[in-house]
Write a structure and sequence with these properties.
14% strand, 43% helix, binds flavin-adenine dinucleotide, Butyryl-CoA Dehydrogenase, subunit A, domain 2, four-stranded mixed beta sheet
């Protein structure tokens, strides 16, 4: 077996030969790849990069190789991350297959489910979305009402989900359904996988004031979930649901990259942006108050990233499927929002750019990123809910 040093050398050489130039540096939102049957490739290099990385299993570096993953150890994975960052290589693909349902299937799926679903995620063949929230069940997720009736060889699903990100482009949805209406609310829930290509599933885009529709309402009207697509035990889906949320929170906070890659690493640094917009005075940023705030945020971000690396190193599996993910999710999303607020202060009126020639493309991206950052402390459970979990499950405080 190659030593870590040999692995680093081989990885460096492979990346140098195989990462297309067009996949180095930050891309546009339109170039982002999440896979699935509706994926188009604005940048042809993105498809080349995806195929090459998938062939090595490096789209899911730490998943076992029998399911198409790279089979890397945590140390090898961190080397791969370092080397990709060194040449500014973009992730070949992202999405809920990798960050949520894949790791959850590895934890709770049957052998057959792993064989059937995981390789298609690795190759970017299938795109997934998340059917958790309902109009009457957000923070209080266990109040969900979508029901699934046992019809012998399948479940018949009826109900509505909301805020289903990316459902308009997804092939499959992992979802929570009520299978035992009389049971206490956490005990009558099951976790099922549903093929969206069927007449019983309808997706209705929710239009935002920006004009775009990243969210949807998803309706199940006699939709079919096959029995073989029940994950975990019948009526015990809450356990699976919580594990998936831990993986989701891990991903939102940057934990799943072992603290190597933060959510906003593709942006120029805060100090660079501030220098350009505010200017320097005697070798220092001309606005001393902002300078102080930027130093504070930058130091805290660095400390946060090192804490994530330490936590990842302490966890043999490299992820953090525990309640502690709530601490990282809470802190990471709030820290990210603070960073983008400071960026806004530095840019002044240039931070109001939405479209048009008065604003550079970077300014328009930064404005959108600032607005999007607000959603990080809501998606995957709000900051208030994370604080509740930390109080109860991590600190052991009474209800
Ligand atoms: C960007 C983004 C993407 C999303 N994508 C998806 C997706 O793909 N699939 C999906 O299923 N859902 C998705 N969601 C929905 C998300 O999971 C919910 O918005 C979230 O769980 C909060 O639920 P809610 O919006 O119903 O708010 P509510 O639960 O109504 O909460 C409203 C306010 O009350 C506070 N609150 C509620 N209960 C408590 C309590 N017990 N203690 C203290 N404060 C409380 C909340 O913190 C919040 O401030 C997404 C949300 C966002 C922002």
């Amino acid at each position: 077996m190659a030593t870590l040093r040999e692995f680093r050398e081989e990885t460096q050489a492979w990346l140098a030969d195989n990462c297309p130039d067009s996949m180095r540096g930050s891309g546009t939102d339109a170039e982002a790849v999440a896979g699935g049957t509706s994926q188009t490739y604005e940048n042809p290099g993105a498809k080349v990069w995806l195929d090459r990385m998938a062939e090595k299993g490096w789209t899911a570096p730490m998943w076992p190789s029998e399911y198409g993953g790279g089979g890397l150890s945590r140390d090898q994975f961190l080397i791969l991350q370092d080397e990709m960052i060194r040449i500014n290589a973009r992730s070949p693909i992202g999405g809920m297959g990798f960050s949520m349902i894949g790791p959850t299937l590895l934890d709770y799926g049957t052998e057959e489910q792993k064989q059937r679903h995981l390789p298609k995620i690795v190759n970017g063949e299938i795109r997934w979305c998340q059917g958790y929230s309902e109009p009457g069940a957000g923070s209080d997720l266990a109040s969900l009402a979508t029901k699934a009736e046992d019809m012998g060889d399948h479940f018949l699903v009826n109900g509505q989900k909301i805020w289903t990100s990316g459902a308009q482009n997804a092939d499959w949805i992992f979802t929570l359904v009520r299978t035992e209406p009389q049971a206490p609310k956490h005990e009558g829930i099951s976790f099922v996988l549903i093929d969206m290509d069927q007449p019983g599933v309808k997706v209705n885009p929710i239009k935002l004031i920006s004009g775009s529709s990243p969210f949807n309402e998803t309706f199940f009207d006699d939709a079919i979930a096959k029995k073989e697509d029940l994950v975990g035990q019948l009526n015990r889906g809450w356990t699976v649901a919580k594990r998936l949320l831990q993986h989701e929170r891990s991903s939102i906070s940057g934990m799943s990259s072992g603290g190597r890659r933060g959510r906003y690493d593709n942006l120029r640094s805060l100090s660079q942006i501030a220098r350009d917009y505010i200017g320097m005075d005697d070798g220092k940023l001309a606005d001393l108050v902002l300078r102080d705030q930027i130093i504070g945020n930058t130091m805290t971000s660095k400390a946060f990233s090192l804490t994530q690396r330490r936590a990842a190193a302490e966890n043999a599996s490299g992820g953090t499927p525990t309640f502690a993910t709530s601490m990282f999710k809470y802190y990471g999303s709030e820290l990210g929002k603070d960073r983008l607020e400071l960026q806004l202060k530095a840019m002044g009126t240039q931070s109001f750019g939405w479209e048009g020639d008065m604003f550079t493309s970077e300014e328009r991206t930064l404005t959108r990123t600032w607005l999007r950052s607000k959603g990080s402390s809501i998606a995957g459970g709000t900051s208030e809910i994370q604080l509740n979990i930390i109080a109860k499950r991590v600190l052991g405080l009474p209800d």
